[in-house]
Automatic annotation (TrEMBL):
<feature type="transmembrane region" description="Helical">
    <location>
        <begin position="251"/>
        <end position="276"/>
    </location>
</feature>
<feature type="transmembrane region" description="Helical">
    <location>
        <begin position="360"/>
        <end position="379"/>
    </location>
</feature>
<keyword id="KW-1003">Cell membrane</keyword>
<comment type="similarity">
    <text>Belongs to the ABC-4 integral membrane protein family.</text>
</comment>
<protein>
    <submittedName>
        <fullName>Uncharacterized protein</fullName>
    </submittedName>
</protein>
<dbReference type="InterPro" id="IPR050250">
    <property type="entry name" value="Macrolide_Exporter_MacB"/>
</dbReference>
<dbReference type="InterPro" id="IPR025857">
    <property type="entry name" value="MacB_PCD"/>
</dbReference>
<dbReference type="Pfam" id="PF02687">
    <property type="entry name" value="FtsX"/>
</dbReference>
<feature type="domain" description="ABC3 transporter permease C-terminal">
    <location>
        <begin position="262"/>
        <end position="389"/>
    </location>
</feature>
<dbReference type="InterPro" id="IPR003838">
    <property type="entry name" value="ABC3_permease_C"/>
</dbReference>
<keyword id="KW-1133">Transmembrane helix</keyword>
<keyword id="KW-0812">Transmembrane</keyword>
<dbReference type="GO" id="GO:0005886">
    <property type="term" value="C:plasma membrane"/>
</dbReference>
<feature type="transmembrane region" description="Helical">
    <location>
        <begin position="21"/>
        <end position="45"/>
    </location>
</feature>
<feature type="domain" description="MacB-like periplasmic core">
    <location>
        <begin position="21"/>
        <end position="233"/>
    </location>
</feature>
<keyword id="KW-0472">Membrane</keyword>
<dbReference type="GO" id="GO:0022857">
    <property type="term" value="F:transmembrane transporter activity"/>
</dbReference>
Length: 396
């Protein structure tokens, strides 16, 4: 019997029992849609976390830190020049770190980082209005949300206001350096860190003559990062890269997705039992029909193929509808959440895409449903192929 004939007979058998087929397919749909909903939520949250914590340019950045106070003295202009000469290095930019106080705000002690405005993107700073410093030596500051709150200010009205900062740092000779400077707030960071932080242009603090806090090295391509990182570490410095953090994030979400998928697997396992039950009942109902088929020349493998095709068709339909419904529920929930977020807060607080369905995952889920259903129908199919034609014809 040709494959097309097997499929035609199998689909015809399923259509003759529409309600039973619908209920069996529904079981698969529930299992698959549950898996899709939960796992795509995991994928979506993973992308959201990565998007909120880094950008593509940050994946090419190596941060050079000192292991102790003595080594911090080696973070200087001479080292910056050496790093710039390393092959495949694109940008080398140092930063200062200072403790500070603010006139009129007793007990408020923010951390101030001095960076080079020309290399703003290397620091992966995301601001509320997308603004940067006016120039390399502008007496300006970008503050985070925590500092805004502690200043008892609003994120919108604080922009343009000036505050007098009392800056304290450690000089290259280990002496304490201080300076007073008035800085104007130009923007607010999209940052939820608990610390009070501000960023200002590097040249504003040139007279402090301090050791660098750290040095960031941006390589030309992501592929060249491991090689450059190895060279820097051979110079005796410790380094860190965003890629390591992404690996930890991806590992955590892989575990989460596995747990979420396991819940969906329970529903799919129940559906597989339903398919097994349906095919077994169908076998008992069609025993006489199978006897007739064999009596007129039907082969054992033809009977087996028909039952297997029926189970596979149920899995294929359940997988297709399941992934569509799971995706649809996710999208609907996403729209509702984004709508509520837009009503409750500013636009930058809207989470965006909470669900993400990788194409390979969608295809894999359908194939998985197909295989599970096919496997569930194997035993009834083998039992049908082994029926004795004479006994089957006598069966009522």
């Amino acid at each position: 019997m040709k494959i097309i004939d097997v499929l035609r007979i199998a689909i015809g058998n399923l259509m003759r029992n529409k309600l039973r087929t619908f209920l069996t397919v529904s079981g698969v749909v529930v299992g698959i849609s549950t898996i899709v909903f939960l796992v795509t939520l995991g994928f979506g949250l993973q992308k959201l976390v990565i998007r909120k914590t880094t950008n593509l340019e940050a994946l090419k950045v190596i941060t050079l830190n000192s292991k102790n106070k003595e080594e911090s003295k080696n973070l200087n202009a001479t080292l910056v020049k050496k790093l710039q000469d390393i092959p495949n290095v694109d940008v080398v930019t140092p930063s200062y770190y200072f403790s500070a106080s603010i006139d009129g705000y007793e007990g408020l002690a923010p951390a101030i980082y001095a960076i080079e405005p020309s290399h703003f993107e290397v620091y992966d700073l995301k601001t509320k209005n997308g603004k940067q410093f006016t120039d390399e030596s502008a007496k300006e500051i970008i503050v985070n949300k925590k500092l805004v709150d502690d200043l008892k200010e609003d994120q919108n009205t604080i922009i343009g206001k000036s505050f007098k900062f009392n800056i304290t740092g450690i000089g290259q000779d280990d002496s304490t350096k201080t300076m007073d400077v008035e800085l104007k707030v130009v923007d607010v960071l999209n940052d939820e860190s608990p610390g009070k932080i501000g960023y200002s242009p590097f040249k504003v603090f040139a007279d402090m003559n301090s050791n660098y806090y750290n040095i960031k090295i941006k390589v030309k391509t992501q592929e060249q990062l491991p090689e450059v990182k190895k060279i820097i570490e051979s110079m005796g410095f410790s380094t860190s890269v965003i890629k390591n953090q992404l690996s930890a994030i991806n590992l955590a979400f892989a575990i989460i997705n596995g747990i979420l998928g396991a819940f969906g697997m329970v529903a799919l396992f129940v559906a597989a039992i339903g398919i097994f039950n349906t095919m077994t009942i169908s076998l008992l109902e069609r025993t006489h029909e199978i006897g007739v088929m064999k009596a007129i020349g039907g082969r054992d493998k033809d009977c087996s193929r028909i039952f297997t095709a029926e189970a596979a068709t149920i899995g294929l339909m359940g997988g297709t509808f399941g992934i569509t419904i799971g995706w649809g529920i996710g999208r609907l929930l996403e729209v509702i959440i984004n709508y509520l977020a837009s009503k409750a807060g500013p636009a930058d607080q809207i989470p965006g895409h909470l669900f993400y369905t990788p194409p390979i995952f969608a295809i894999g889920v359908v194939v998985f449903a197909f295989l599970v259903s096919t496997f569930a129908g194997i035993w009834p199919a083998r039992r049908a192929s082994r029926l004795n034609p004479l006994e089957a014809l006598r069966y009522e």
